[in-house]
Specification:
Elements: H1 3-26, H2 28-32, H3 37-47, H4 53-61, H5 74-93, H6 104-141, H7 150-156, H8 158-164, H9 166-171, H10 176-206, H11 220-224, H12 247-277, H13 290-307, H14 315-335, H15 339-344, H16 346-371, H17 376-388, H18 391-401, H19 409-420, H20 428-440, H21 442-464, H22 469-484
Helix pairs in contact: 1-3, 1-5, 1-14, 3-14, 5-8, 5-13, 5-14, 6-7, 6-16, 6-17, 6-19, 6-21, 6-22, 7-8, 7-10, 7-16, 8-10, 10-16, 10-17, 10-18, 12-13, 16-17, 17-18, 17-19, 20-21
């Protein structure tokens, strides 16, 4: 394939994203659902592809009819299908870059209850999914045992993780797993916002939400995904002079170093595994690059914390790099989604979607108030959003429930991510779960996740849950003062 064709396919993705943003600005439904433009663009690209427009044209005009292969050339789809596996490493490498790693004591006190809740949701998704697999989906529907991992991959991991694991699913003999996971991720993003906004309004009416009064509403500009002119903010800081190097370029170079560190670690682990137990159990041979790229980002950030006295690495610039990678990743992943795979496994898909939604909502409603001693609603709603969709969904719900940052919800959520992201939602546990189930069967992972679920519940209910709201506030305030002294 020529470089011109690759470049043209990327340009078309940009146009699709622009059209999707225009739809978001004009469509009241898209605004009320807080649908990201990338989701809209991915759905649009999917509709114009061979699965929808192509299928309709083929059914009407027969094979070889105009548009029977969809609007997009096959070369476009080939490029787009390879993008998620590349871009997901950029997304994960930038998770912690540009943000000082906090002291362990400060992060632990504030994020402890939050982490217990997050691990309960994440480990529980595996337990629910694997139980469904061994009791129903495998014996009665003939599914691959890997189907038990899809709730966590699709809901907790989101579109990026589902797309990034496509090669792993294929290598392990379950290629339709990626399509099912992407479908679940789409259900999760939409339901995360719809259910989340509904719960916020429920929390306001019943007094469970402590800081929000009246109806939980956002401004029209926020719904349209725009800033009012007077509220517009700079996208990033110029930390180096452009006469020496473009600031965006130097930040891209730092991301590249993080990814290369992750690649080196992954290859070293694969070589060690091959030397020690080749031909028995292989885990790292199937682990994708992106969770290790995230660890590479942590290593780079620790070096930056120690030596970057000039503040060269800007967090907002890293978020811009992460954002464009994630937007293009989601559009390209959805554009190449196989609707046939979902249609052929619609019962499995429906069972997993309903079970995943029921588990996460149940944990928030019944367990969050018993695990988080203070501001459980504002803090728990963020974890619900993340466990159903992506981190951005959790942030949206925190913003809606606590618009003036009157609670430590946002800070606690951020600290919790430092311990949670390396393992769940696309981290090492997510990546290792697929080869573990493929080679050992579902029971070892089910037992391990059940033990982890029991441990997180025990810590959450018996340690954090027994604190009074006043004690929790005093602990958080004390560690914050100690961290700044």
């Amino acid at each position: 394939m020529s470089a011109n064709m690759i470049g043209l396919s990327l340009l078309v993705l940009g146009v699709v994203l622009l059209v999707a943003k225009a739809i978001r600005v004009r469509s009241r439904l898209a605004q009320k659902l807080f649908l990201p433009s990338s989701i809209i663009g991915g759905a649009l690209a999917l509709l114009l592809g061979p699965g929808v427009v192509g299928g309709i044209a083929g059914a009407v005009g027969g094979e070889g009819a105009p548009l029977s292969e969809g609007v997009w050339p096959a070369e476009f789809l080939e490029v787009w299908s390879s993008l998620p596996g590349l871009l997901i490493s950029v997304v994960f490498a930038t998770l912690f870059l540009g943000e000082r790693i906090p002291k362990v004591k400060t992060a632990a006190e504030l994020a402890g209850p939050q982490l217990a809740l997050g691990v309960t949701m994440g480990a529980g998704q595996y337990v629910v999914g694997l139980l469904l697999a061994v009791l129903v989906l495998v014996p009665f529907l003939g599914q691959n045992p890997l189907v038990g991992t899809l709730i966590e991959v699709g809901f907790e991991g989101g579109h990026g993780t589902a797309a990034g694991l496509g090669t792993t699913f294929e290598e392990l003999g379950f290629p339709e797993g990626q399509d099912l996971a992407l479908g679940l991720a789409t259900i999760g993003v939409v339901s995360g916002v719809v259910v989340g906004i509904g719960l916020v309004n429920w929390g306001v009416r019943t007094g469970r939400a402590e800081v929000l009064e009246g109806d939980a509403k956002t401004s029209l500009a926020e719904q349209r995904g725009l800033y009012e002119k007077d509220d517009q903010e700079p996208a990033a800081m110029l930390t180096v002079r452009t006469a020496s190097v473009e600031p965006l370029a130097i930040h891209f170079a730092i991301v590249a170093v993080a990814i290369l560190i992750g690649l080196a670690v992954l290859e070293a682990l694969q070589a060690l595994e091959a030397a020690l137990w080749a031909g028995t159990i292989e885990i790292f041979a199937f682990v994708p690059l992106f969770p290790l790229a995230m660890l590479g980002g942590v290593v780079v950030q620790k070096v930056v914390d120690r030596y970057d006295s000039m503040g060269i690495v800007d967090r907002r610039m890293m978020l811009r790099i992460q954002g464009i990678a994630l937007d293009l990743l989601i559009i390209s992943a959805l554009a190449t989604l196989s609707l046939q795979a979902i249609a052929s496994n619609w019962v499995t898909f429906l069972v997993l979607a309903v079970a995943g939604l029921a588990w996460n909502i149940g944990v928030f409603v019944f367990l969050a108030p018993r695990i988080i001693p203070r501001y459980w609603f504002e803090r728990g709603i963020g974890d619900l959003g993340q466990s159903l969709g992506v981190t951005a969904t959790g942030l949206i719900l925190i913003r809606v429930a606590d618009p003036n940052a009157a609670t430590p919800a946002l800070e606690a959520f951020g600290y919790k991510q430092l311990a949670f992201e390396p393992f769940f939602g696309g981290g090492l546990v997510t990546a290792a779960s697929l080869p573990l189930v493929a080679q050992l069967g579902p029971y070892p992972l089910l037992i391990a996740m059940a033990v982890l679920l029991a441990a997180s519940l025990a810590v959450g209910l018996l340690v954090f849950g027994r604190r009074s709201p006043e004690e929790e506030e005093a602990r958080v305030a004390g560690t914050a003062e100690g961290d700044t002294s």
